[in-house]
From TrEMBL:
Coiled coil start-end: 44-145, 179-220
Domain of life: Bacteria
UniProt source species: Marmoricola endophyticus
The M23ase beta-sheet core domain, residue ranges: 338-436
Alphabetic keyword roster: Coiled coil, Hydrolase, Metal-binding, Metalloprotease, Protease, Signal, Zinc
Protein name: Metalloendopeptidase
Pfam families in UniProt: Peptidase_M23
Entry annotated with the keyword Magnesium: no
Biological process annotations from GO: proteolysis
Signal peptide extent: 1-32
Region (Disordered): 292-313
Length: 440
């Protein structure tokens, strides 16, 4: 558990980042081992090692939250969840608004295109009408010419008839030329009629295409209007969701602030408790040294000899370290503080052993530490050493009891501020917390 907070610049929340990084590392490791070199057994061992490291990282991230009450952790997670939902809702709202703006721009463009297409239809109809009139006029000219030929009222035909009735051969070429001229004129009229008819057909095709474009533009505009209505509804729903989530986030923030204030009050009490214990143990250490000095002066010697000799302490449990001793930044509140012990992996009910011969000097419950047990080991390596067990559901020994090295003193648990069953183990040397691993 982290203690003795000192001023430090605010830090970003690390818990989610650490866990996410660990999970990402696990995923990356799994993917990376898809086509690795080496034997299948080697690949399996490598994956197992990576998986174990990731699990340790996740446990370490959870241990960082040990200096936080369960209520505060819940409030912080609720706040983070509310913020994530709010961010997602705001993103959805921005997307809906952007799509709506695009639909509105498209609507304006379609309306312009529709107006242009309708104007093209009007123009095509007018040109078609004019072309029809030209064609009809040409047909009337041909009809009049045909009627004149039929009734032989044409001067050319009258002259031709006279020449053909003449017995003079010299007039025949002139008559044939007149016939050629008449046929040429007739063919010219027919060719002109065909050209005019082709123009008329093209005008009809242009009108049909223009009408099809108008129809397509109208359908596109209608579909876009339907989409605009849908997007407007979507945007209104997103706005309502954002408004509701803003309220939820405000509520979550208030709960987190309240939990933080409560935690800080309890941390102040906890620090006072730590200071009390430290002062008490320093007095015990000073008294022990004074007694040892008196004994040495009187020649008695050994009155304060180490209960364990100079050998290392036993490990209290066999589990691996999940959170080491040392200073760190609190993952929620951002202050810099000392994690005054070592957290060991210890599933619920794991036996906890006495690390040396000693005497139980305190056993009590504290809101953050849970159930605590303090054992005075006497002189170890020339220093007074007291060890502290935390978070257990209870202990098998009581104040005044003497314990032997390796004796089971209790079982691991998760009382107090704890994210799961484990052992937070502290070594106090002359009243000052030291790294437990240096004494094992």
């Amino acid at each position: 558990m982290a203690h003795f907070p000192v001023p430090f610049r605010p830090a970003h929340l690390r818990h989610r980042a650490l866990v996410a990084s660990a999970l990402l590392a696990l995923t990356a490791g799994s993917v990376a081992t898809g086509l690795p070199s080496g034997t299948p057994a080697a690949r399996a061992d490598d994956l197992k090692d990576k998986h174990g490291k990731v699990r340790s990282q996740i446990k370490a991230a959870e241990s960082d939250l040990e200096d936080t009450s369960a209520a505060s952790v819940r409030a912080h997670r609720a706040l983070s969840a509310a913020q994530a939902k709010l961010d997602a809702a705001q993103g959805a709202l921005a997307t809906s608004r952007a799509k709506l703006a695009e639909a509105q721009q498209l609507d304006a463009a379609l309306q312009t295109q529709l107006t242009q297409a309708e104007a093209a239809v009007t123009k095509a109809k007018a040109e078609l009408a004019r072309q029809k009139e030209v064609v009809e006029e040409q047909r009337r000219d041909i009809g009049r010419q045909a009627a004149a030929n039929l009734h032989q009222t044409s001067p050319q035909l009258v002259g031709l008839s006279t020449m053909l009735r003449s017995q003079d051969p010299a007039t025949l070429p002139t008559g044939m030329q007149a016939v050629d001229n008449m046929m040429t004129e007739q063919n010219t009229l027919l060719d002109k009629m065909k050209a005019l008819q082709s123009q008329l057909d093209r005008k009809k095709d242009a009108l049909t295409k223009a009408q099809e474009q108008v129809r397509a533009k109208r359908e596109a505009a209608a579909a876009n209007l339907t989409e605009m209505a849908r997007l407007e509804g979507q945007a209104r729903t997103a706005e309502a969701s954002v408004a509701a989530l803003v309220g939820q986030r405000t509520t979550a923030q208030q709960a987190a602030d309240k939990a933080k204030a409560s935690d800080q009050a309890q941390l102040s009490s906890l620090n006072a408790e730590d200071a009390r214990i430290s002062a008490q143990l320093k007095k015990r250490a000073a008294a022990a040294k004074a007694a040892a000095a008196r004994a040495s002066t009187s020649g008695q010697g050994g009155g304060s000899s180490s209960s364990n000799g100079s050998g290392p302490l036993l490990r209290p449990v066999s589990g691996y370290v999940t959170s080491p001793f040392g200073y760190r930044v609190h993952p929620i509140y951002g202050y810099y503080s000392l994690h005054n012990g070592t957290d060991f992996h210890a599933p619920c009910g794991t036996p906890m052993k006495a690390v040396g011969n000693g005497k139980v000097i305190e056993k009590y419950y504290q809101s953050a530490w849970g159930n605590r047990l303090l054992i005075d080991l006497g002189q170890v390596r020339g220093h007074n050493v007291v060890v502290i067990y935390n978070h257990a559901p209870g202990y098998r020994v009581g104040v005044g009891d003497r314990v032997s090295r390796g004796e089971i003193v209790g079982y691991s648990g998760t009382t107090g501020w704890s994210t799961g069953c484990h052992l937070h183990f502290t070594v106090m040397v002359d009243g000052v917390p030291k790294n437990p691993l240096d004494w094992m």
